[in-house]
Amino acid sequence: MYTPKGGAGALIYYQGHSEPETAKFVMDFLKPGMTFWDVGAHIGEYSLIASRCVGVTGMVEAFEPQPPIYDYLLRNVEANHASNIRLHRQAVCEEFGTAELSLLQDPSLAYLIPRHGGRRESSSLSVPTVSLDHFHRSTGLTPDVIKVDVEGAEQMVLEGSKNLMALEKGAPVWIVEYEPDNCQRFGYQALELIRCFEQHGYTTYWLTDESYLAPIAPAATNGRAGNFVASKARLSSV
Questions:
Q1: pLDDT digit string (tens) for 204-221?
Q2: Residues 6+ apart with CB under 8 A from 35
Q3: pTM (2 decimals)?
Q4: Which of 36, 52, 156, 182 is most open to solvent, judged by the fewest CB atoms within 10 Å of its CB?
Q5: Class assignment of domain 7-231?
Protein backbone atom coordinates (compact mmCIF):
# COMPACT_ATOMS: atom_id res chain seq x y z
CA MET A 1 0.00 0.00 0.00
CA TYR A 2 1.28 3.45 -0.94
CA THR A 3 0.75 6.07 1.75
CA PRO A 4 1.76 9.70 2.31
CA LYS A 5 3.60 10.78 5.42
CA GLY A 6 1.17 11.31 8.27
CA GLY A 7 -0.54 9.75 11.24
CA ALA A 8 -2.64 7.22 9.33
CA GLY A 9 0.31 6.01 7.29
CA ALA A 10 2.44 5.58 10.40
CA LEU A 11 -0.28 3.55 12.13
CA ILE A 12 -0.64 1.27 9.10
CA TYR A 13 3.12 0.78 8.99
CA TYR A 14 3.54 -0.04 12.68
CA GLN A 15 0.21 -1.78 13.44
CA GLY A 16 -0.80 -3.24 10.11
CA HIS A 17 -4.01 -1.18 10.18
CA SER A 18 -4.79 2.39 11.25
CA GLU A 19 -7.60 1.08 13.49
CA PRO A 20 -7.12 -2.67 14.04
CA GLU A 21 -10.49 -3.12 15.78
CA THR A 22 -12.34 -1.58 12.83
CA ALA A 23 -10.37 -3.60 10.31
CA LYS A 24 -11.19 -6.81 12.18
CA PHE A 25 -14.89 -5.97 12.34
CA VAL A 26 -14.99 -5.29 8.60
CA MET A 27 -13.13 -8.52 7.81
CA ASP A 28 -15.38 -10.57 10.10
CA PHE A 29 -18.65 -9.03 8.96
CA LEU A 30 -18.30 -8.75 5.18
CA LYS A 31 -19.01 -11.82 3.07
CA PRO A 32 -18.64 -12.57 -0.67
CA GLY A 33 -21.23 -10.76 -2.76
CA MET A 34 -21.80 -7.91 -0.30
CA THR A 35 -21.56 -4.19 -1.11
CA PHE A 36 -19.43 -1.79 0.94
CA TRP A 37 -19.51 2.02 0.75
CA ASP A 38 -16.38 3.75 2.00
CA VAL A 39 -17.18 7.39 2.82
CA GLY A 40 -13.92 9.21 3.42
CA ALA A 41 -11.91 6.44 1.79
CA HIS A 42 -8.57 8.25 2.20
CA ILE A 43 -5.85 6.07 0.61
CA GLY A 44 -8.11 3.03 0.38
CA GLU A 45 -7.17 1.01 3.45
CA TYR A 46 -10.73 -0.16 4.15
CA SER A 47 -11.73 -0.25 0.51
CA LEU A 48 -8.97 -2.78 -0.12
CA ILE A 49 -9.92 -4.84 2.93
CA ALA A 50 -13.54 -4.84 1.80
CA SER A 51 -12.54 -5.68 -1.77
CA ARG A 52 -10.90 -8.89 -0.64
CA CYS A 53 -13.84 -9.80 1.61
CA VAL A 54 -16.67 -9.26 -0.90
CA GLY A 55 -14.82 -10.86 -3.80
CA VAL A 56 -15.60 -10.70 -7.48
CA THR A 57 -19.35 -10.92 -6.87
CA GLY A 58 -19.32 -7.95 -4.49
CA MET A 59 -18.69 -4.23 -4.96
CA VAL A 60 -16.95 -1.39 -3.13
CA GLU A 61 -17.82 2.28 -3.72
CA ALA A 62 -15.05 4.57 -2.44
CA PHE A 63 -15.58 8.32 -1.97
CA GLU A 64 -12.54 10.59 -1.54
CA PRO A 65 -12.51 14.28 -2.57
CA GLN A 66 -8.95 15.35 -1.75
CA PRO A 67 -6.98 15.36 -5.03
CA PRO A 68 -3.51 14.26 -3.80
CA ILE A 69 -5.06 11.58 -1.56
CA TYR A 70 -7.36 10.44 -4.36
CA ASP A 71 -4.23 9.83 -6.41
CA TYR A 72 -2.89 7.53 -3.67
CA LEU A 73 -6.28 5.79 -3.56
CA LEU A 74 -6.23 5.23 -7.32
CA ARG A 75 -2.64 4.01 -7.19
CA ASN A 76 -3.43 1.53 -4.40
CA VAL A 77 -6.49 0.18 -6.20
CA GLU A 78 -4.51 -0.31 -9.40
CA ALA A 79 -1.53 -1.87 -7.60
CA ASN A 80 -3.84 -4.41 -5.95
CA HIS A 81 -5.79 -5.11 -9.16
CA ALA A 82 -9.00 -4.43 -7.23
CA SER A 83 -11.45 -4.37 -10.12
CA ASN A 84 -14.44 -4.48 -7.76
CA ILE A 85 -13.71 -0.98 -6.38
CA ARG A 86 -15.28 2.05 -8.04
CA LEU A 87 -13.78 5.42 -7.18
CA HIS A 88 -15.65 8.69 -6.74
CA ARG A 89 -13.70 11.96 -6.41
CA GLN A 90 -16.48 13.49 -4.31
CA ALA A 91 -17.15 14.49 -0.73
CA VAL A 92 -20.29 13.03 0.80
CA CYS A 93 -22.56 15.46 2.63
CA GLU A 94 -26.22 16.49 2.74
CA GLU A 95 -26.65 17.51 -0.89
CA PHE A 96 -25.39 17.27 -4.44
CA GLY A 97 -23.26 20.29 -5.34
CA THR A 98 -19.95 21.68 -4.09
CA ALA A 99 -18.32 22.51 -0.76
CA GLU A 100 -15.03 23.85 0.57
CA LEU A 101 -12.49 21.31 1.79
CA SER A 102 -9.76 22.42 4.19
CA LEU A 103 -6.23 21.32 3.42
CA LEU A 104 -4.00 20.43 6.36
CA GLN A 105 -0.40 19.25 6.67
CA ASP A 106 -1.67 15.81 7.67
CA PRO A 107 -4.05 14.96 4.81
CA SER A 108 -5.91 12.39 6.90
CA LEU A 109 -7.30 15.28 8.99
CA ALA A 110 -8.76 17.34 6.12
CA TYR A 111 -12.41 18.27 6.61
CA LEU A 112 -15.28 20.03 4.88
CA ILE A 113 -15.70 23.61 6.03
CA PRO A 114 -19.18 24.01 7.56
CA ARG A 115 -21.51 25.85 5.20
CA HIS A 116 -23.10 28.02 7.89
CA GLY A 117 -20.82 29.85 10.27
CA GLY A 118 -17.75 27.90 9.25
CA ARG A 119 -14.37 29.60 9.15
CA ARG A 120 -12.76 29.57 5.71
CA GLU A 121 -9.25 28.20 6.00
CA SER A 122 -6.36 29.97 4.30
CA SER A 123 -5.73 26.76 2.37
CA SER A 124 -8.86 25.16 0.94
CA LEU A 125 -10.38 24.11 -2.34
CA SER A 126 -13.83 23.59 -3.77
CA VAL A 127 -14.80 19.94 -4.24
CA PRO A 128 -17.86 18.25 -5.73
CA THR A 129 -20.32 16.74 -3.27
CA VAL A 130 -23.00 14.07 -3.33
CA SER A 131 -25.50 12.79 -0.79
CA LEU A 132 -25.87 9.07 -0.16
CA ASP A 133 -29.59 9.32 -0.90
CA HIS A 134 -28.76 10.84 -4.29
CA PHE A 135 -26.20 8.13 -4.98
CA HIS A 136 -28.65 5.44 -3.85
CA ARG A 137 -31.38 6.77 -6.15
CA SER A 138 -29.12 7.28 -9.15
CA THR A 139 -27.45 3.86 -8.97
CA GLY A 140 -30.25 1.71 -7.58
CA LEU A 141 -27.67 0.10 -5.28
CA THR A 142 -28.21 -0.58 -1.60
CA PRO A 143 -25.08 -1.22 0.46
CA ASP A 144 -24.70 -3.87 3.14
CA VAL A 145 -22.17 -1.78 5.10
CA ILE A 146 -21.32 1.94 5.08
CA LYS A 147 -18.18 3.24 6.77
CA VAL A 148 -18.16 6.99 7.52
CA ASP A 149 -14.99 8.83 8.61
CA VAL A 150 -15.22 12.48 7.59
CA GLU A 151 -13.62 14.43 10.44
CA GLY A 152 -16.77 15.99 11.89
CA ALA A 153 -19.00 16.13 8.82
CA GLU A 154 -20.75 12.91 9.87
CA GLN A 155 -23.96 14.79 10.66
CA MET A 156 -23.96 16.24 7.13
CA VAL A 157 -23.60 12.71 5.73
CA LEU A 158 -26.57 11.50 7.79
CA GLU A 159 -28.71 14.48 6.77
CA GLY A 160 -28.23 13.36 3.19
CA SER A 161 -29.03 9.73 4.00
CA LYS A 162 -32.52 9.92 5.55
CA ASN A 163 -34.20 7.77 2.92
CA LEU A 164 -31.43 5.20 3.10
CA MET A 165 -31.64 5.16 6.90
CA ALA A 166 -35.42 4.72 6.74
CA LEU A 167 -35.14 1.40 4.90
CA GLU A 168 -36.47 -1.56 6.84
CA LYS A 169 -35.69 -4.44 4.50
CA GLY A 170 -31.99 -4.61 3.78
CA ALA A 171 -31.08 -1.59 5.91
CA PRO A 172 -27.30 -1.15 5.84
CA VAL A 173 -25.03 -1.53 8.82
CA TRP A 174 -23.05 1.64 9.56
CA ILE A 175 -19.57 2.14 11.01
CA VAL A 176 -19.23 5.78 12.08
CA GLU A 177 -16.47 7.78 13.71
CA TYR A 178 -17.42 9.30 17.08
CA GLU A 179 -15.07 12.19 17.82
CA PRO A 180 -16.61 14.97 19.97
CA ASP A 181 -13.97 17.59 19.13
CA ASN A 182 -14.52 17.15 15.39
CA CYS A 183 -18.29 17.37 15.81
CA GLN A 184 -17.94 20.54 17.86
CA ARG A 185 -16.21 22.16 14.90
CA PHE A 186 -19.48 21.73 13.02
CA GLY A 187 -21.60 23.06 15.89
CA TYR A 188 -23.23 19.88 17.13
CA GLN A 189 -22.70 17.29 19.85
CA ALA A 190 -21.40 13.85 18.89
CA LEU A 191 -24.28 12.26 20.82
CA GLU A 192 -26.62 13.62 18.15
CA LEU A 193 -25.21 11.04 15.73
CA ILE A 194 -26.32 8.21 17.99
CA ARG A 195 -29.72 9.86 18.55
CA CYS A 196 -30.20 10.11 14.78
CA PHE A 197 -29.70 6.40 14.32
CA GLU A 198 -31.99 5.59 17.24
CA GLN A 199 -34.73 7.75 15.70
CA HIS A 200 -34.50 5.63 12.56
CA GLY A 201 -34.86 2.36 14.44
CA TYR A 202 -31.20 1.43 14.76
CA THR A 203 -29.42 -0.09 17.73
CA THR A 204 -25.95 1.34 18.30
CA TYR A 205 -22.83 -0.34 19.67
CA TRP A 206 -19.37 0.81 20.64
CA LEU A 207 -16.69 -0.95 18.64
CA THR A 208 -14.20 -1.79 21.39
CA ASP A 209 -10.45 -2.25 21.16
CA GLU A 210 -11.02 -6.01 21.10
CA SER A 211 -13.55 -5.64 18.22
CA TYR A 212 -16.43 -6.59 20.51
CA LEU A 213 -19.74 -4.77 20.19
CA ALA A 214 -20.95 -3.13 23.39
CA PRO A 215 -24.48 -1.63 23.34
CA ILE A 216 -24.34 2.12 23.80
CA ALA A 217 -25.94 3.73 26.81
CA PRO A 218 -26.39 7.37 25.66
CA ALA A 219 -26.11 8.61 29.24
CA ALA A 220 -22.58 7.17 29.44
CA THR A 221 -20.98 8.67 26.36
CA ASN A 222 -18.97 11.41 28.09
CA GLY A 223 -15.30 11.16 27.31
CA ARG A 224 -15.76 8.50 24.64
CA ALA A 225 -14.16 8.65 21.24
CA GLY A 226 -13.66 6.04 18.57
CA ASN A 227 -16.05 4.23 16.25
CA PHE A 228 -19.55 2.92 16.73
CA VAL A 229 -21.68 0.49 14.75
CA ALA A 230 -25.39 0.98 13.99
CA SER A 231 -27.65 -1.84 12.82
CA LYS A 232 -31.38 -2.53 12.58
CA ALA A 233 -30.72 -6.26 12.81
CA ARG A 234 -29.51 -7.48 16.18
CA LEU A 235 -25.75 -7.93 16.26
CA SER A 236 -23.61 -9.96 18.58
CA SER A 237 -19.85 -9.84 18.72
CA VAL A 238 -18.61 -10.91 15.31
A1: 999 987 768 988 987 667
A2: 54, 58, 59, 60, 61, 141, 142, 143, 144, 145
A3: 0.91
A4: 52
A5: alpha beta
List, as one string, the DSSP characters of the chain. Answer: ----SSHHHHHHHHHSSSSHHHHHHHHHH--TT-EEEEET-TTSHHHHHHHHHH-TTSEEEEE---HHHHHHHHHHHHHTT-TTEEEE--EESSSSEEEEEE--SSGGG--BPPTTTPPPPSSEEEEEEE-HHHHHHHH----SEEEE--TTTHHHHHHTTHHHHT--TTPPEEEEEE-HHHHHHTTS-THHHHHHHHHTT-EEEEE-TTS-EEE--GGG-TT--EEEEEESS-----
- Cβ burial of 166 (10 Å; 0-12, 13-18, 19+) is exposed
How far apart (Å, rounded) are the C-alpha atoms in residues 238 and 28?
Answer: 6
Whole-number percent of the chain with pLDDT over 70? 87
Q: Residue 79: what are its φ and ψ, rounded to 5°?
A: -65, -30
Q: How far apart are CA 38 and CA 215, in angstroms?
A: 23
**Sequence ranges of the domains in the chain:** 7-231
CA–CA distance, 34 with 234 (Å, rounded to integer) = 18
Q: What is the pLDDT of residues 120-165, one digit of tens each?
A: 555 888 999 999 999 999 999 999 999 999 989 999 999 999 999 9
